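Quick one - inputs below.
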Amino acid sequence: MGKTTHFGYKQVDVEKKQGLVKEVFDSVAGKYDLMNDVMSMGTHRLWKNYTIASSNVVEGDHVLDIAGGTGDLALKFRKKVGPKGKVILSDINSSMLFEGRKNLLNHGVIDVEFVQANAESLPFDDNAFDCVSIAFGLRNVTHKAEALKQMYRVLKKGGTLLILEFSKVENQTLEKIYDLYSFNVIPKFGEFFANDEDSYQYLAESIRKHPDQETLKNMVLDAGFEFCEYHNLTGGIVALHKAIKA
Amino acid sequence: MFRLTIEKSLNRFINANNIDLNQIENKIISLKVDEIDLTLFFLSLNSRIFVVDNHKNKKADVSILMSKASFLSIFKGATIEELLKSEDIEINGSVNTAQQLASLLSSSSIDIEELISQYTGDIAAHQIGKAFRHLKDSAINNDGSLIGAIKDEITTVLVAPSRSKLFKGRA
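Output:
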């Protein structure tokens, strides 16, 4: 085995991680929104609303939503940018893009573009977007530093990067409850609602392997961003990192 | 939350009134209020204002140091020139740029007294009260949707960190 990386708590060959993550999302795509609602008890919608409220996006802006999945952020951004703006939803996984397209069509939205792309090599021009977002996607990226550099590259000067991701819980008591919930309840929900316990076991593990708030902030700054700050949401279960390319 | 509220209010005003930020574009303006240990960094880029945490210690183009009374009076329309006469303010850098920012702050309908009370005191009740008081303005200034404004404000109240955690020792 060559260079390894984590896939949940397992160490796997770097080249294999992307395929393994793909299997997870191929498996959960159809039940993704339902599972998000069940697991977070609907709170993921508040986290996403907060992300949009923090975005500083205005009418006419160009927005790229990476790992956009079922399109809930793209839908909200599209409202913000209006008909003069542009929203592109990208995802590496075709099953998730399929779900996203279906979801947006169900909302009567036909002007969001869909692009299948790897966050580590974004197929977009330099300085193309006013805002780049990635919600619950970065922890699944194999080479996070490379992906962050790509995000920096495609953002315009004065563009905003928003990373919404599971993070490190601040309070020890909450952390214990959260651990109990993550490792004992969520996989069972996965089995019950999506007939897939393993993928939700991976979810719980991948959250623990993701960089904590300060580490991610430093990674964002290392990627070239001049300003980055994070907001802990729901006690740090999730954090929103907001960075600016100056 | 303090920074986010100011940032959102400023940008709503800028968008609604097509304010040209050319004169302060690419400028970093630091505004420090000593008595309440508040430092805000305003960054003007891409035709909008960001209110940021300056942890890389980027040098500000203009630094403003003022008393709490002066800070509050700016939001009530006091000009930088007037404040300079009262010797209640120190400016390093362009006074004109400082005035541009002061004008934006005074025009943007920020309820600064409420914000300051959140910053210096307890927050939960204030945040909920404030959220509802600003719903009407938000609906008008945002996209006209009251539901959207309610969602925006309640989301911020429910999931955002408390002032005491976010702003302990810093803005």
